[in-house]
Structures are given as C-alpha cells and as structure tokens.
Amino acid sequence: MGRPMEMTDLRIALVSGNYNYVRDGANQALNRLVGYLLRQGAAVRVYSPTVDEPAFPPTGDLVSVPSFAIPGRPEYRFPIALSPRVRRDLAAFAPNVVHVASPDTVSHRAVSWARARQVPVLASVHTRFETYFRYYNMAWFEPVMEAILRRFYRRCDALVAPSESMAQVLRDQRMNYDVGIWSRGVDREIFNPGRRDPEWRRGLGIADDDVVIGFLGRLVMEKGLDVFSDTIDELNRRGVPHKVLVVGEGPARDWFEARLPGAVFAGFQGGADLGRAVASMDVLFNPSITETFGNVTLEAMACARPVVAAAATGSESLVDDGASGRLIRPGAIHQFAEALRAYVEHGDLRTRHGAAGEARAMEFSWDRINQAVADTYLRLIRQRAGARRQG
C-alpha cells in the first residue's frame, strides 16, 4: 500500500464555459476554489473560452478553448471544440481528476477524454439551465433539455451542487446518484451591516427615512425582472411608500428602466462598492428561480438585510421563512407585495429578521467550503484506484 493521497498530489483540469470573461456568481466561486487549491499546493489548469478584455484577471493558468459569440447574447461565448492544441496541453498536464463546470460541447468532450484514460470526473452544477426556456416562450423544450443534461451528468463520477435543495432536485431528476454539496461562502470584510452609507444613498436621491427595496443581479429576463416589476406596481397601487434600488447591469436594463420609472439604477458595483450598495438597501427582493444557490441572497443576509425570495432552489436553503425573510411561491405577485409591505411598514421586523439572517450567513466560510470540493476530488481518485485494483 502506498501513502494516502494528499492535496499536493492533486492535478486538476478545470473546464468552464465562462471562467472570467463575464463576471457571475459561478465563476467567482470557481476562481476562489482555484485560488484555495493553489494555496494548498495542488496543481490546477483551467480550460475556458477567453476574450481580449475579460471582466477580471483569471486565478491560475488559463488555456483558451475555441469558441464563438452566442447570437442574441454576444457577451457570452459558446465553447465549440477540444482542439488538437488543447488536447496536447491536457495530455502534457496529465490531470488525475477532471472538473467540468458547464454542460457544453467542450465539457462533453472533456468527459469522454477523461473516461478513455480512466480519470475520474467531478461536475459542478451552477445554473438550472432547463428553467431558462420558460423565459423565452419555450417551456416545451424543458423536458428535452433535462434529458440532455441527464445524459451528460450520468457520465460523470459525481456531482456537487451549491445547496441541499438543488442537490435534491438533481437526485429527483435522476441526474446522478453521487451528489454532494459545494456551498458558497461570503466575504465578511465586504458584506456586513457596517457598510451602510447614508451619504451614498443621499447622493442617489434616497432620503434617510426612505425604505429601499433592492434588486441585485445581472439584468436579464431569467432573473425574474417581470415578477419584480409587477410586484412593485402592486405596492404602488396599495400606496405603500418605498424606493427601489437596482444594482447590476445587463442587456435588459432598458426594459427594466422603462418598467420602473421611479427606481434608482446604480449600475454594476463590485468589491467594497457592492457591499456598500447591499448594506444601503433595507430589504432584498429576489424573485429569480434559476439560481442553484443564490449568492445575492447570502450577501444581503450578511449585511443584516431581510430577504423576500421565490421559494425555489437556492434561496430555500438559506432563508428561514418567517425568521430571516419570506419565501413566496414563484410568480405570486400579491403574496410578494404583502411580504414586502410588512417589511416597509415595520422597522422592528426588518431589524429582527435581518439579525437572524446575519447569524445564518456567518456559517459560510470559503476555506471550509472549498476544502469539501478538494476532499471530493481525493475520494473519487481513491475510488477509481480501488476499482482498477479490483478489475
């Protein structure tokens, strides 16, 4: 028997559809994971589409894979091939585990490459891709997409999902029988109640006694912008005084601005500026059902802000309904409005539920969370070696 495998023995090939060219919660988590793995002495090589001016510098070594801009959403790129150049690079790197982070063509090829060489594969699930079609009048395609995803994920040795609620969805959909949790952490330096800035609020035309309902995220229709807007209309009809603060950018910004004429649009905020923006809200409203975790929900909770969210994967694992926020049936406009009205009109309720959310957010430490992924790599390598010995 040889010595037990350690972190420094790991050689991880990470294949991602978007590692750093457009910033999102998924690739922020991937970059944090790579940074942690490198600090522990593991070797990591990342394979992803690249652009001339990415949203942020990549953590670790990044190898560009061939891709093209997606029609209608040109900011995103579709990886098209594991080219001979990339295959040579993979072979030279000689990974002992492959991690795929998106169910695209290149990840399919990477899984085949790994299986042919008896290298275990871990897939991380970041987005409920099958739900996107609801926002483009293509709900009929959802079961087809689910079948495509099932074929992909069953060829992997194990999956990790960001929340227990999402892991249960994957089990129910029979995507794989080895599903673990790779949760998300929150940076308490950036996200805490002390970041609240009345001066910044005043600069946006928000008075000190205005109760601010916040939206945080990329401005695309699948984030539930229609439900958000309809709910704000309902609050206005009921005469509930409030301000709306929208933090984020995206292709649907013009549509959203036209739907919310009285809202304040702060644009993209990052780092400490984002912490200030979230802490300067009074309640976060997150109607989206496409997230597998809900980073924005956790960030608001860390800033001691109550959250009104759709009762969907992600938020369900974070928000304690009636204690740190409200979980409402997706699309239920009147119930969303009623939950928000309670927070607008009762400052003591906001304070109490915000404090409960902050306490919950303290449980999420990035290093502990990322070590769980490293432990999964080591387990899969051990299992593969054991299967080889028995075979």
TrEMBL record:
InterPro entries: Glyco_trans_4-like_N, Glycosyltransferase_grp1
UniProt-listed SUPFAM superfamilies: UDP-Glycosyltransferase/glycogen phosphorylase
Domain Glycosyltransferase subfamily 4-like N-terminal per the UniProt entry, residue ranges: 24-189
Residues spanning the signal sequence: none
MF (Gene Ontology): glycosyltransferase activity
Name of this chain's protein: Sulfolipid synthase
